[in-house]
Structures are given as C-alpha cells and as structure tokens.
C-alpha cells in the first residue's frame, strides 16, 4: 500500500487575513487565534509583518514565544524588515519582492536585473542569520515566465527552503495554474507553495490545481479572509484535499468549525450562511424530502458528516418542513407528542414558514407546548370561526367574534381597553358563561425582532377550577385569543 500524499498548511489568517479591510486585531486576539490555529494543526502560522509597527512586532514576538507551531514573519526584501523578523524570534522568514512588469514599472521603478539581485541578496541575508527562508515573487502569475523562473532558480541557489507562487490579484484559472506550476516544478527542486487570491472566486480551485501540479504547501486563511476578496479558504482546501483528492494534511478536522467561529467573532467578519463547510446552512436541511432521507441515511444529501468538521446538522423549520423533520426535532428536544399533535404542530410551523417566518428551536418548543396543552379536536366545545378587530382613534377598540359552541354559531361584539381586551370580552360574551373569568395574563416574545412569535399564558377560572392555558402566534391578539379558547375548552371540559 502506498502512503497517502501529505500537503503542508501555511496559515496566513494573522497576516494576509488581517489585511481584510476593517480588520485590526489586538495582540491578545492574535494570540488567541494563533493558539487555535496551533490546536487545529496548521504546519506554519504567518503571525504578521513585524516591521509594520511596534504593536505588530510585539504581537509576533509573543506568538513566536508562546505558540507551539512554526511561526513565520513577513519581510519585504529589505534588511531592516528581515532584521525585525529575526528580532521577533520567528522560526521562518517569508521575504518577497514583485516580479511582474506592472509592479516593476509602477510600484518598484526597478529593472529585472535589480529585482533579481535584491531577491537573491535578501534570501542570503535570511540564511546568514541561520533561519529558513520562504521566498515569494509577488504577482508571480502575471510575471514573464523566463524572468520568474530565473528569480526562482536564483533564490533556490541562494539557500531558500521554499518558494511560494502568489496569484496576487487572483487572475488564474485552474488550467493556467496547473500549467504554470508544472513548469516551475520541472525547474525547481525545493518545496513549492501557492498563495491564491479570490478576486474571481477561483482561489480554492486554483490552490487545488497547484497541488495537482506538484505543489506541496498551500497558503490559506480561516474563513477565506484577506486582501480584497480574500484568500483561499482553509476549511474548503483542507476538506477538498481530504475528501475529493484523498490527500492528507495535519489538520484536526473536528476543530475546523470552532476555529472558524472564533475567527468570525474576533475579526467581526461574518461568513455567509451558504459558505461551504462552516456556513450556517452548510449542514442545514429544510425540504421535507431531504430531511426524511437524511434522517434515514445522512449520505443521501450530505457529502461529509457535519461532526467531521465539528459542526452540527440542523433541521430547519420553515415552509418546506415535513412531519419527519418536526418529529426528529421534537425527539431531539425531548418532547413527546402523539400523531395528531405532531400533525397539528407541523401545520402550524408550515403556516408560519409560509408567511416567511423561520421557526427556531424556542418557537418550536412553545408551539409544541401550546398544542400538547390543547383539548383534542373532537372534544373541543368552543372553536373560533372569525374575528374582526376595529381600532379607533381616541375611542375604545371593538372586536366582533364568531364562535362555534357545541356545533352552534354564536356571535358577539364588545369593546375593550385595548384590542386584546376587546377580543377576549367578545369571546366571553359569545359564550355567555359569566362565571368564567380571566385571572392572569402573561405575554412573552419568544425570539427577538418585530416578527417574533408572541407567547401568551393565561389563568382561567370557573368556580373552584383554575387552569393554565397557552397560545402562540405571530400576532399578539391572535396568541391571546388562542390561549383563551384553549383555556375555555379545558375548563368547560372539567367544570
Ligand atoms: O498576495 C500576495 O502576493 C502576498 C505576498 C506577500 C505573498 O500576500
Ligand atoms: Zn496575498
């Protein structure tokens, strides 16, 4: 049996990732992320750009001292930058200089010969300090091939340990990346690395193409953060290598999701719900057909098990939900229901979903408790047929109700101090049961927002008998009416 190929993960969340517009991490936050990356199992952590500021220098130095993974510092191909990396005690120096005609002309104002000399001398300077050197010809993918290879050969001879090929402005496609990497691989013996930006959404695909062509290290960031549209995403690259290519990394995949959440929280960069592997919807199933199948056999609609990346499967309760999804969710929540109650809960959730409301766990618990507390349909004495509310400026609101009481229609119209009071007065009047009184009324909003479900609990009494009843609806008046009618049915049954 041949051993599986293994790719090294170079994480640049704390360097290129921190260059994400709007992100500035304190030393404490950088350290927390660095520890998480180390636990995750990345091979190299690029901790920052020490020459950038004293704060950055101190953060990199602290990470180098405290974190048990190879720590790398970034340096332009300039002696003061490299000195700062050495002073920060990094174990690897990443030095770079541009090699593309655009950068030479407009950014550097230097000739190819000058660039070649600076690159080689920078690598020699790092090596002279007894440190391994990673060299990047910046904007490699827009560089003239012969010059790019000349520089790569020069730095290899100068003692570089790894050469990184950056697709600085993300202009490659997988076939061009494969071709370029193959040509470089034929000329260069030391390890090859790749650093892809996501300007056209190609960063992950280009990174994988580079691996196909013989690259043995990849530069990635957690959640794909980085300059402009970001870098190749660690989670996607690692899982694609493992599942689609059968290539191993040192990553403990179960820590992927918690690490992603940590970086999301500390950087403030929210990931899209449909983001692969770690997005909120990556393992969420809503459609009844999918939920039913996934509950039988997860592989039907899941290419990987959520536990593999430390995530959880979510059965989303919306308009597409089916009885099986609700049943599974209720079981998970430890709520037992009979088939009729299950049907009623499902109808309520689907109705809410149809109105665009996403029912979360807390909503489901309230709906289930409401339904469980209801008198079975065939035993209900009172049913609501219709309710009309009339709110009037500077006058008391009026409510008109039509009820079916013991199979007969009853109507009443009443005023109240507010719409809820008017509706409950009208119901009481239509029933004609004067001895029934509302002892207590309590309203909760289950989840935040103006479309939160209203959860009403009431205490109804008739003579000696007192019962509690509940009603859940997206409208406060309706939740109150449902609670009152639930209460009436129960009290009339026992009284
Ligand atoms: O995108 C880029 O070229 C870089 C280099 C410093 C490697 O981030
Ligand atoms: Zn970059």
Please describe the structure with a list of short key phrases separated by commas or semicolons.
495 residues; alpha/beta; TIM Barrel; Double Stranded RNA Binding Domain; eight-stranded parallel beta barrel; 16 helices; 16 strands; elongated; binds 3-methyl-2-oxobutanoic acid; binds zinc ion
- Give the radius of gyration: 32 Å
Give the number of helices.
16
Q: What's the overall geometry?
A: elongated
CATH class descriptor name of the largest domain:
Alpha Beta
Number of strands: 16
CATH third-level topology of the largest domain? TIM Barrel
Question: What do these coordinates show?
Answer:
The structure is a single chain. By secondary structure, the chain is an alpha/beta fold. The chain has 3 domains: 8-267, Alpha-Beta Barrel (TIM Barrel); 284-372, no CATH class; 377-494, Alpha-isopropylmalate synthase LeuA, regulatory domain (Double Stranded RNA Binding Domain, 2-Layer Sandwich). The protein is built from 16 helices and 16 strands. The chain has helices spanning 27-40, 54-66, 79-87, 101-108, 112-128, 145-157, 174-187, 203-212, 234-245, 256-267, 288-296, 323-332, 339-354, 361-372, 419-431, 476-494; strands at residues 8-11, 44-48, 70-76, 92-98, 133-138, 162-167, 191-196, 217-220, 284-285, 314-315, 382-392, 395-405, 408-415, 436-445, 454-462, 465-473. The strands form 4 sheets. It has an 8-stranded parallel beta barrel, surrounded by 8 helices. A 3-stranded antiparallel β-sheet has the order 11-12-13. A 3-stranded antiparallel β-sheet has the order 14-15-16. α1 runs parallel beside α2, α1 (27-40) runs antiparallel to α10 and α11 (288-296) crosses α12 (323-332). The chain is elongated, with a radius of gyration of 32 Å. The N and C termini lie far apart (78 Å). The mean pLDDT is 92. The site of zinc ion has 5 residues, from loops.
């Amino acid at each position: 049996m041949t051993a599986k190929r293994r790719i090294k993960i170079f994480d640049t969340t704390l360097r290129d990732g921190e260059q994400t517009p709007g992100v500035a991490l304190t030393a404490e936050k950088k350290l927390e992320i660095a520890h998480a990356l180390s636990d995750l199992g990345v091979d190299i952590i690029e901790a920052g750009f020490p020459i950038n500021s004293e704060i950055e220098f101190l953060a990199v130095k602290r990470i180098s001292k405290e974190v048990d993974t190879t720590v790398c510092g970034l340096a332009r191909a300039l002696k003061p930058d490299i000195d700062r990396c050495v002073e920060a005690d990094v174990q690897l120096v990443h030095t770079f200089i541009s090699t593309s005609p655009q950068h030479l002309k407009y950014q550097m104002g230097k000739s190819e010969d000058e660039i070649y000399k600076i690159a080689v001398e920078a690598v020699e300077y790092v090596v002279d300090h007894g440190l391994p050197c990673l060299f990047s010809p910046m904007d490699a993918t827009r560089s003239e091939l012969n010059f790019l290879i000349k520089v790569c050969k020069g730095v290899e001879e100068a003692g570089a340990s790894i050469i990184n090929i950056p697709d600085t402005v993300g202009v490659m496609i997988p076939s061009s990346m494969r071709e370029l990497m193959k040509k470089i691989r034929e000329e260069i013996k030391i390890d090859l690395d790749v650093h892809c930006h996501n300007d056209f959404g190609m960063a992950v695909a280009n990174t994988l193409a580079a691996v196909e062509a013989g690259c043995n290290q990849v530069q990635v960031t957690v959640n794909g953060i980085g300059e402009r549209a970001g870098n190749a995403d660690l989670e996607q690259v690692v899982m694609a290598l493992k599942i689609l290519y059968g290539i191993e990394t040192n990553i403990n995949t179960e820590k992927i999701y918690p690490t992603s959440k940590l970086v999301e929280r500390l950087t403030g960069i929210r990931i899209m719900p449909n983001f692969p592997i770690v997005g909120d919807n990556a393992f969420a199933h809503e459609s009844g057909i999918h939920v039913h199948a996934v509950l039988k056999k997860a592989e039907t609609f899941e290419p990987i098990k959520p536990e593999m990346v430390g995530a959880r499967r979510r059965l989303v309760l919306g308009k597409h939900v089916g009885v099986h999804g609700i049943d599974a969710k209720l079981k998970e929540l430890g709520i037992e229901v009979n088939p009729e109650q299950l049907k009623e809960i499902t109808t309520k959730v689907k109705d809410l979903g149809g109105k665009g409301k996403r029912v979360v766990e807390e909503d489901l618990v309230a709906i289930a408790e409401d339904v469980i507390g209801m008198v079975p349909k065939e035993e209900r004495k009172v049913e609501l047929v219709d309710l009309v509310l009339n709110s009037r400026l500077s006058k008391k609101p009026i409510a008109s109700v039509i009820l079916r009481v013991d199979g007969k229609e009853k109507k009443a119209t009443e005023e109240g101090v507010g719409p809820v009071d008017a509706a409950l007065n009208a119901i009481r009047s239509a029933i004609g049961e004067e001895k029934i009184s509302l002892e207590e009324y309590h309203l909760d909003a289950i989840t935040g927002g103006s479309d939160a479900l209203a959860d009403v609990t009431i205490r109804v009494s008739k003579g000696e008998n007192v019962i509690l009843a509940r009603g859940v609806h997206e409208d406060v008046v309706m939740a109150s009416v449902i609670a009152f009618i639930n209460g009436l049915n129960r009290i009339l049954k026992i009284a």
